[in-house]
Automatic annotation (TrEMBL):
PROSITE patterns in UniProt: C2 (PS50004), PH_DOMAIN (PS50003), RAS_GTPASE_ACTIV_2 (PS50018), ZF_BTK (PS51113)
Taxonomic source organism: Chinchilla lanigera
Protein name: Ras GTPase-activating protein 4
UniProt keyword annotation of Zinc present: yes
Pfam (any one): PH
Length: 756
């Protein structure tokens, strides 16, 4: 049994943001932080106070996280980016909203003293004595403190307050992972305050000290237990009044928290076997459970259900059979060939999910280089005359203004070239298309031909209706692209014909060749510095290599086509974690801790170009090594420079790490390894939510059988299959009840102020 939490995040748009640039506008983007750690960054929307992002993410987290914060920033080319404001959602807030938070929220001002993170390690004792008892506080260490100085660190010290008395630790310079190991004592007096306050501060020589957070401990609780020790999460100073809001604009968000208790694999076997049996039987099966699931699933959650089912059957090797069953169900209720897969049916949603999971890597490999080139060229393109921006062209001293006609013609030429390159690359890629995708398309082609034998020529419809008189009248300025589009339609028809022209033997050969290769998980350029502890580290020592991560190893070479490469065996990876900013002057460096063939510990430092790339690589490495033996529970976020760790200043190179590893914090992507138990749990949760509807359907089928309105097929009747499903759901519900430790200890509370 395992407890898992995930966040579904959609950052929609902002409005009424303040102007941060001298032009009277801003260049906004969003940073998402979980417990103070940046995990995501949206694109920048240039020159606007009402940006639209529409970006979606899925984040897997440990159930112990506390809050997710959305920072709206203004990007600056010549100075540090400005913070416009933030929205913070606590875990308790999200837990109290089963359907998640959806709507607008006011941005609030970011106060440095409110931006706290990290934990402090304390041991508290009550010592009996004469005439009274004494309270002893051991301030041991802290981790993951907020960096308040320009060097990416802090100079922390601790103030301990009790009953009007204050004592302080020494200052630890340049560390977010300080160790003090200092002790303080206070006399416990009758009628004195019942709380001990421990505050962490960043010491500054010339300016005011920065608040890093505090912990308030009940003395009565310590007195009852005599001793208490542990890591305490630092909290902001709640005594400060909240700053005024409303003039910083608003952010529209969709955020949903999902907590899952995933049981052992054996618990889900009856459910998986029941569904697989139906898929194997196809439309010949009497139960039609898949049809009932589709019928009783609402439109708003059909995509999620389709994705979960598709992944479950993909893991069972039945994706093709599952989709074929859906094809037959869809074709059975369709009367016109040109309306196929136009609705939000389970078939269309499942096919969409299938293509993302099984075909996205192929699409990235074929079209990725061309799309990258489009972005790198940064050419201005606009075909709508009402939106054309006329700019100066020519060399220095010979500037002239382009005419509107020149801009339009140049834009048309650029678009025709891009479209031609995309279509050509796609049409040459038939052999590169995954065998399971080609086989599934072939089966779909066969089913459509059986159902609509006279409509084969309609397999490829007009692209975006651009080849009709209506479209030309509506958007006449798109006319320059018509010849390219018509040529593309012809190419696409030829491509699909070749794609589905695959025999059984060829399909088996393709699948066999693919099974012999270790699946590629992620690849791309990174900068690497490998160290064995010899000499100081510097950012200039990073060298650029092309990295490839498979389910066997992390390898790197000078170029993607290089035959000579070095590698880190996947089984040898012990942790993949971030490196604190001050170590290399960059916040986008990660470390891969592993052992070499002799069993000696080694570390590779990899520099990424942005926070998104950093977290994508961390996620990929963590997911493929999650079951490794010997994974580290703690690590050093700094580097061993000279004779000590830069993070905690410890001199023992083999010393236990000063921060906990975060192997459970990952981003969900289309190429994630399949998690069969989680997919089964998600399907169970969905079926349980519509249990009443399923029972009503079962009664309806039973009544139909009694009066002879439902023809009975061989074997069990339709209502028997539903009865079996309802029985499986009851058993799983009982297993979940037995796994619960008890009711939650506290009621969730909402701290988010919503916009009215």
């Amino acid at each position: 049994m395992a407890k898992r939490s995930s966040l579904s995040i959609r950052i929609v748009e902002g409005k009424n943001l303040p102007a941060k640039d001298i032009t009277g506008s801003s260049d906004p983007y969003c940073i998402v932080k979980v417990d103070g750690e940046p995990i995501l960054r949206t694109a920048t929307v240039w020159k606007t106070l009402c940006p639209f992002w529409g970006e979606e993410y899925q984040v897997h987290l440990p159930p112990t996280f506390h809050a997710v914060a959305f920072y709206v920033m203004d990007e600056d080319a010549l100075s540090r980016d400005d913070v416009i404001g933030k929205v913070c959602l606590t875990r308790d807030t999200l837990a109290s909203l089963p359907k998640g938070f959806t709507g607008w929220a006011h941005l609030t001002e970011v106060d440095r003293d409110e931006e706290v993170q990290g934990e402090i390690h304390l041991r508290l004792e009550v010592l009996p004595g004469t005439p009274g008892c004494r309270l002893r506080c051991f301030v041991l260490e802290a981790r993951d403190l907020a960096p308040k100085d320009r060097n990416g660190a802090s100079d922390p010290f601790v103030r301990v307050r009790y009953n009007g008395r204050t004592q302080e630790t020494s200052v630890v310079k340049k560390s977010c992972y300080p160790r003090w190991n200092e002790t303080f004592e206070f006399e416990l007096e009758e009628g004195a305050t019942d709380v001990l306050c421990v505050e962490a501060w960043d010491w500054d020589l010339v300016s005011r000290n920065d608040f890093l957070g505090k912990v308030v401990v009940s003395v009565q609780r310590v007195r009852a237990a005599q001793q208490e020790e542990g890591w305490f999460r630092l909290q902001p100073d709640q005594s400060k009044s909240q700053r005024a809001e409303g003039n910083l604009g608003s952010l529209q968000l969709e955020v949903r928290l999902r907590d899952e208790t995933v049981l052992s694999s054996g618990c889900y076997q009856p459910l998986v076997q029941l569904l697989c049996q139906e898929v194997k039987l196809g439309t010949q099966g009497p139960g039609q459970l898949i049809a009932v699931i589709e019928e009783t699933t609402s439109t708003e959650c059909r995509q999620e259900v389709a994705t979960n089912l598709l992944k479950l059957f993909l893991g069972q090797g039945l994706a093709k059979e599952f989709l074929d069953l859906l094809f037959q169900l869809e074709l059975g209720r369709t009367n016109e060939a040109n309306t196929l897969f136009r609705s939000n049916s389970l078939a269309s949603k499942s096919m969409e999910s299938f293509l993302k999971v099984a075909g996205m890597r192929y699409l990235h490999g074929v079209l990725g280089p061309i799309i990258d080139r489009v972005f790198e060229e940064k050419k201005y393109v606009e075909l709508d005359p009402s939106k054309v921006e006329v700019k100066d062209v020519g060399c220095s001293g010979l500037h002239r203004q382009q005419s509107e006609a020149e801009v339009l013609e140049q834009s048309a030429q650029t678009l025709r070239a891009h479209l031609g390159a995309l279509m050509s690359a796609l049409c040459r890629s038939v052999r590169a298309c995954p065998a399971v995708v080609r086989a599934t398309f072939r089966q779909l082609f066969k089913r459509v031909r059986e159902r609509f034998p006279d409509a084969q020529h309609e397999a490829v419809q007009n692209v975006a209706n651009m080849d009709t008189p209506v479209s030309r009248a509506k958007e006449a300025w798109m006319e320059p692209l018509q010849p390219t589009v018509r040529q593309g339609v012809a190419q696409l028809k030829d491509f699909i014909t070749k794609l589905v022209d695959i025999g059984e033997k060829e399909e088996l050969d393709l699948q066999r060749s693919l099974s012999l290769q270790a699946p590629l998980v992620k690849e791309g350029p990174l900068f690497i510095h490998r160290t064995k502890g010899k000499g100081p580290l510097a950012s200039s020592s990073f060298k650029k290599f092309h990295f490839s991560l498979t389910t066997d190893a992390l390898s790197f070479a000078k170029t993607p086509s290089s035959k000579k490469s070095a590698l880190i065996k996947l089984a040898n990876i012990r942790a993949a974690e971030k490196v604190e900013e001050k170590s290399f002057g960059s916040s986008h460096v990660m470390q891969v801790i592993y052992t070499d063939d002799m069993g000696r510990p080694q570390t590779a430092y990899l520099q990424c170009k942005c926070v998104n790339e950093l977290n994508q690589w961390l996620s990929a490495l963590r997911k493929v090594s999650i079951n490794n033996a010997g994974l580290l529970a703690s690590y050093h976020p700094g580097v061993f420079r000279g004779d000590r760790w830069s993070c905690c200043h410890q001199k023992d190179r083999t010393d236990q790490g000063c921060d906990k590893t975060r192997s459970r914090v990952t981003l969900q992507e289309w190429n994630d390894p399949l998690d069969h138990d989680l997919e089964a749990q998600l399907i169970y949760r969905h079926l349980l939510s519509m249990e009443a509807t399923l029972r009503e359907k079962h009664r309806e089928l039973s009544r139909g059988t009694e009066v002879g309105t439902v023809p009975a097929g061989p074997g069990e009747a339709p209502e028997d299959a539903l009865a079996a499903l309802l029985g499986v759901l009851q058993d799983l519900q009982a297993s979940h009840r037995s796994s619960l430790p008890g009711p939650p200890s506290s009621e969730p509370h909402c701290t988010l102020e919503l916009q009215t």
